[in-house]
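SAMPLE LOG
Freezer: B-3
Tube label: C17
Construct: single chain, 562 aa
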Amino acid sequence: MKSYKDFAINTKLTLLVLLAGGVALLMSCIAFVTNDMNMIRSSMVKQMSTLADVLGANSTAALSFDDPNTASELLASLQQQPAVEFACIYDASGHAFASYHRLRSVSPPLPMPAQHGYEFTDEGYLDVARPIDHAGQSIGTIYLHASMDELRDQMLRYVNIVAAVMIVSLGASILLSSRLQRVISVPILKLADAAERISVERDYAIRVTKSANDELGTLYDQFNAMLDQIQQGEAAVQQAHDELEIKIEQRTAQLSRANTELSREISERLRAELELEAVHQQLMTSARRAGMAEMATGVLHNVGNVLNSINVSATLASDRMRQSKVTDLIRATQMIESHAEDLGAFITSDPKGKQLPGFLSLLAAHLADERADVVKELELLSTKINHVKTIVSTQQSYAGVLGVIETVDIATTLDDALKLNSASFDRHQIAVARQYEDIPKVRLDKQKVLQILVNLVKNAKDAITDGPHQKERKLTLRTTLSGEKSLQIYIIDNGMGIPPENLTRIFSHGFTTKKKGHGFGLHSCANAASELGGSLVAKSDGPGKGATFILELPFEPAEVPA
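STRUCTURE (predicted):
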């Protein structure tokens, strides 16, 4: 079966007119019928209410004198109202006083209606209940039960009228549209016929003659102009074809030579692509090595800082020993030995001997302080040597091969990254806050993770020391779980901050804002994070407002042994 879009244009126009006119006419008829039905219903309600009020007013005497016969005779006058099928008068106590029903099989409704007014029932009836008042008091109620057959008959007549009007109107629309649509469809059909002839015969000399200056006339003009262009183009194509035939033979030899040249160029391009891939791999390796070198440089820098402190402590201890008062003790001992035979007389009588006990007492106190200072420096020296051993052992524990997946404790790995930079934190008085969630051990490439963390911690330390003067220099390390598949590590500093335009550029190869930077560190960190299946992003509110680096890694818990 054809769809509407496949019909001929004259059929489409006719159907369009019929549909538009039919819908408009149908909506108008429905509106008129609905309005008339509402008016008839309102009229019937008003009529029945007025009838009930008249009957109620005439039945006040019968209710007052308790005369049901008179009330029944009054209700019998409803024989002149064919619509009323049942009526009843109730006294003040709600009992049926008198009733009327056109059909004897209908019994009076009991009890009295609950409220006054009117109601259209689902069975197609109108119920009206009106109070009967006398001397300002309600002495009863009159109830009318009327059929809506008149309304249904009227509606049926309206439906027949609407159907007849629709049929006549649609017939007239068909006659008018079949003639009027030709004004539009005939020019379009002529144009379609001309286009079909041109398509079949390939004769671009065919033209159409316009009959009006409307949009169709403009379409005719454009169609003819298009045919002119096509005809001119066909002539140009034919000329070009002839010229092409001549040139083909000339180009064949050139193409043969070009084919050979192209083959050579393809080989060169493949070789260049292989070289480019090799260079790319070398660049990636260089970036990775640069990151590792950054970490090694940081370790050596921290070891150097500790060694400087060791050298200071050793120098202080050496200077202290060189300036020791032990020589004074030796001289006092020699003096005692030289007077060993008359030591008592020497101490009591000789002026130098008398000063010897006091001198020895002061010398003992001085030597005790000197010993305490030397012991303190030696303890500091031992602590710093242990610090170097810790840094070296931490570095050695991560001296494995990249790419090896191991079971990693994130909190321990973060602490190791801090150890490798701890000397700088102590020297620059940077407070470190650890905010670690209770995260199970995960399976990751331990070497890459530490490489990233050491670089980030070192950058944070540099940002804090190079930034504006802070009352408190603070570095915060935080770990969180985002959902069930993502582990996030935050490196937060209150240092120099990052301008908005640099938040993404800092991860580019070679970009740096440091005077002695090379732009490899963050680039290698971002590459390493990507190789781990994660990401590295930076956030900052601007210069002087600190920065936050977020390392997001896939969360793959290590299996717990049974």
